[in-house]
Amino acid sequence: MVLGFGPIGASPIGAGPQHLIQQIDRGRRLVTLTSTAILIPERRTDEGLLIKSVGKAWIDVARILGDDWSAAFEIDDRQWEEMLAGALKKEGFDVTLTPPRKDHGRDVIARKGGVGSMRMLGSMKAYAPGRVVGRDHVHEVLGVVEAERATKGMIVTTSDFAPQLLDAPRLAELIPDRLELVNGRQLQEWLGKLTSSST
Fold this sequence. Notes:
It contains five helices and nine strands, in the order H-E-E-H-H-E-E-E-E-H-E-E-E-H. The protein has a seven-stranded mixed β-sheet, with helices on both faces. It has a two-stranded parallel sheet with strand order 6-8. The N and C termini lie far apart (about 50 Å). The chain has helices at about 20-35, 55-65, 75-90, 135-145, 185-195; strands at about 40-45, 50-55, 95, 110, 120-125, 130-135, 150-155, 160, 180. The protein has one domain: Trna Endonuclease, Chain: A, domain 1 (3-Layer(aba) Sandwich). It is globular and about 45 Å long. A hairpin with a 5-residue loop joins strand 4 (about 110) and strand 5 (about 120-125). Helix 1 packs antiparallel against helix 2 (about 55-65) and helix 2 packs across helix 5.
């Protein structure tokens, strides 16, 4: 008897469906990429790690995600925080990645100086499909933005936001000037846009 994919004896181990082999290869590639430098640090600050630039691994992971969003659910929470920090860095912000614990409700702090300067607090929620970001987290982020007198907050998720989230009184008025919400589809498009301009 030969054990393999499908009915017992149907095919030898290693001769499984091509799409399964490709998924396994992609998973191995993601593990390798995310264990290398996604971000290039500049220095530590009181708030966390100031980012100098994104590493080649950031671009490679973003390109994989652009082709296949199911890969998003193979990346751990901290690596997603690094991906968000890298995206904001590529958008021209000075970015600090906060420590994994005791981050005071913000995963990333992004600043732009000069005319129209701003300080934005980012929260990354690496959620599986079907798990949504609820109103409680939105109010939590708004509370941190207010307490820190930041210009705005940003909540990014690999999944989506709760239905009727913006039905709360006056919450819709805060979007996008005071709070930006980015769901998985928008995140995939954003990463695609950022990598299409990368060399």
